[in-house]
Amino acid sequence: MRYLIFAVIGYFMGSVPFSFLVPLFFGVNITKVGSGNVGGTNVLRNMGGWLGAAAMVMDGVKAFLPIIIARSIFGISMTEGMMIGFFAAIGHSYSIFLKFRGGKAVACTVGTLSALIPWYVAVFFGIWLPIVLITQFVSLGSVLALLLLSIILFFTQGTGVGLWMLAFFVLALFRHRKNVRALIEGKERKTDLIAAFKKKRDRQ
User: For residues 155 and 166, what is the distance between their CA atoms, to the nearest angstrom?
Assistant: First the structure.
């Protein structure tokens, strides 16, 4: 019952669609813009880096907050915290408030790491950022960073945490399956992060 409660809380917290609500506040339905994906990258591409970053941070908080609360009240273990974060990522990807549409789980993964092992957030961005700046493929950076983190956590945090991190990676890989196909076919859309942060918000 304890695990079920944690899973339900994680899912419903994750389902709050900040990457939909932030653009909507500015009069933009993000599902009808760009790729139509309800995620921070689509917000960043179409509304500028600062709004995209705000959406990503808020999406990360959806996993961060319930984990912090559960640790304070219930003294949950690391693996239980990873479970809550994983179900928040499921909620983010398949939001009950958006007819089970959503983002690609990366922000919630980072939010989970921030709550449990914040040092590894630096490791994530240490892998993700150079890849994205050099290739301009956010999807490639995200998938590779999560894969490498899965391997690292197996050796540094144990099997339980490593397996949950692997679950995050598999979820993100599945959500990025069209991007992976586009990368293989040479059709993936590039994202210039520096230009995105210089870009003024589109008025659509």
Answer: 13
